[in-house]
Amino acid sequence: MKDRRWFTLWGLAALLLSGLAIATPPTAKRGSSQFVQTDGASFIVNGSKFRYVGTNAYWLPVLNTEQDIWNTLGNISAIGAKVVRLWAFNDVTTTPSDGTWFQLVQNGKVSINDGPNGLQKLDTVIQMAEQHGLYVIMTLTNNWYPTASNSTGSSLQARGGTTEITLPRNYLSNDYGGMDLYVRQFGLQYHDQFYTDEKIVKAFKNFTSQVVTRYVNSPAVFSWELANDPRCSSTLPMSGSCTTETITQWHATMAAYIRSIDPNHLISSGNQGYMCTDCAKLYPLNPAPAPQPSPAPGSKKRSVPVSSEQILRKRAESRRLNRRAAKLAGKLKEDGIRVRGRWAATATRRQQSQEVGTAYDGSYGVDSQDILNIPDISFGTFQLFPDQDTYAASDPSLSSYQNMVNSGVDWITNQAQSAAAVGKPLIMTAFGLVTQSNAADFVPFNMTTAPYATNTSYGATNQEQTDAYSTWLSTSVSLNLAGMIQYQWGQESLTAETGTTISPGVTGITPSSDSTGTSQSNDTTGVSPNDGYSSYGT
Ligand SMILES: *[C@@H]1O[C@H](CO)[C@@H](O)[C@H](O)[C@H]1NC(C)=O
Ligand SMILES: *[C@@H]1O[C@H](CO)[C@@H](O)[C@H](O)[C@H]1NC(C)=O
Ligand SMILES: *[C@@H]1O[C@H](CO)[C@@H](O)[C@H](O)[C@H]1NC(C)=O
Ligand SMILES: *[C@@H]1O[C@H](CO)[C@@H](O)[C@H](O)[C@H]1NC(C)=O
Ligand SMILES: *[C@@H]1O[C@H](CO)[C@@H](O)[C@H](O)[C@H]1NC(C)=O
Ligand SMILES: *[C@@H]1O[C@H](CO)[C@@H](O)[C@H](O)[C@H]1NC(C)=O
Ligand SMILES: *[C@@H]1O[C@H](CO)[C@@H](O)[C@H](O)[C@H]1NC(C)=O
């Protein structure tokens, strides 16, 4: 069964946003540029505020026909989405005989493919997006490229056990090249050398300049996103010297470079939103003005950055409340230690430490607030993937589902506070929750295997996914997020061609009953790549 429920929710979110848009009169402040601009915490287009829901379709440029690209963008536009996020990179290490590719990176040398199976495919996507009234977030590289060898295509273990299937190149979001591909091909060993090695930085600027100058005058480009989920580590290990400053400095360098060649478009990071509450900043916030003696009723308090003290205090508070509520409802989870007939401190509770956790302590080498305060970074980005990332320790009084929903709400809330302290717009560039029906196709970004392919109880129910999305979207809308982008779009009835991403008979990681996933059938239609999050449109 294809999952379609997202689109009902989407309609609701779009409606909610359009209601808000009507309530805000056009602003003349930034003129009426067709290019997306920012004004404080808002985006402005054509002189009006622009808030949106959008979707991810990293694979748009690899589709086989213009008609497929046209139909997909038409379907995306038809449900009310305004922004689509995609991969504007596609690196290979040898020239493939079929399919789309943008850049050959081989033994420290690069060359760019601007032919019909190269950047001209991206041209088509951008032109058609504009015709459909869609804006495109163009991601320039990826933190993730978990390939063990130089061969192309991902090998995956399918549901039911032991068969290895090889998916076509570009089927997974982490199979488009990216940072680790550069590092390997430049003869280096650490992931973070992507950010610091002069030759790699030069090559990445070179690729960036060719893409950016190609679309410098296109109003359909929403923003240049420097990288998907940039961090200190990936499949390749990190060196001993990568810190949050390494990543922040790279952002500053790249953002200034893009600004020097493109005065028109916004520039964003693409990071997950990881914070480092106690890190020194390369780009400190301006000191907050002295508080007003008596703020007028309804006037907004000045936002302050997220602090460790605040995270720990709120966490303890909500644990106390949840525990009390669970007790009252007679539902306190019996995973604690029995002390004189009462359920007392649980294992998790005892572990509750004075540590904010990896999402807030700089463990990943990312300080999203420092990055956001770089002058050339136009707005904030974060992602929400509770199947893959841990945002907070679980509260033992709650079910794992409720913990997951709550950790998403806390994550969105803290991101909103952090962005408000900087005073720039904030968008959630990707969010998703794996359902049971998608579990067999779920491949985490750092893997090439489907770890839950044989686990029939993995994943949320459809209702749980709907409820979680609804909670996260309403939290995002109420906290003034400027954009929310679902992961990921699913499209059916695509033209299949042997040797390309959309190959005959490839219907996903799970082999369909009449195919092994890679076998040739005479079926000429295919479905879009799915990492385990696809929702299908019309
Ligand atoms: C949606 O895609 C289908 C092909 O799958 C196409 O026939 C239809 O015209 C598209 N709808 C829109 C509104 O573009
Ligand atoms: C930049 O890209 C061009 C075109 O692909 C290539 O010929 C050139 O060698 C690259 N320059 C650097 C410094 O990588
Ligand atoms: C801005 O105006 C252009 C040109 O009229 C139009 O194509 C585009 O869809 C408008 N954008 C928004 C968000 O209204
Ligand atoms: C991948 O290619 C590089 C450069 O061509 C080579 O040095 C390396 O040994 C290859 N690695 C594997 C696992 O084949
Ligand atoms: C991928 O990341 C998850 C956490 O999301 C971790 O548990 C797992 O070990 C990682 N796998 C690899 C192959 O790095
Ligand atoms: C299967 O998934 C469920 C739900 O996430 C989990 O509790 C269980 O440990 C998993 N089983 C295996 C064998 O991975
Ligand atoms: C597929 O098409 C070929 C000819 O192009 C034909 O020989 C073969 O029988 C067809 N197979 C099926 C399953 O229809």
UniProtKB/TrEMBL annotation:
GO terms for molecular function: mannan endo-1,4-beta-mannosidase activity. Its EC number is 3.2.1.78. Keywords: Glycosidase, Hydrolase, Secreted, Signal. It is found in: Secreted. It is an enzyme of class 3 (hydrolase). Residues 1-23 form the signal peptide. InterPro entries: GH, Glyco_hydro_5, MAN-like. SUPFAM superfamilies: (Trans)glycosidases. Residues 287-319, 498-538 are annotated as: Disordered. It comes from the Eukaryota. One of its GO terms (biological process) is mannan catabolic process. Residues 287-296 have a biased composition (Pro residues). Transmembrane segments: none annotated. Pfam families: GH5_mannosidase. Residues 33-278 form the Glycoside hydrolase family domain. It catalyses: Random hydrolysis of (1->4)-beta-D-mannosidic linkages in mannans, galactomannans and glucomannans. Its main location: secreted. Belongs to the glycosyl hydrolase 5 (cellulase A) family. This is mannan endo-1,4-beta-mannosidase. It comes from Pisolithus tinctorius Marx 270.
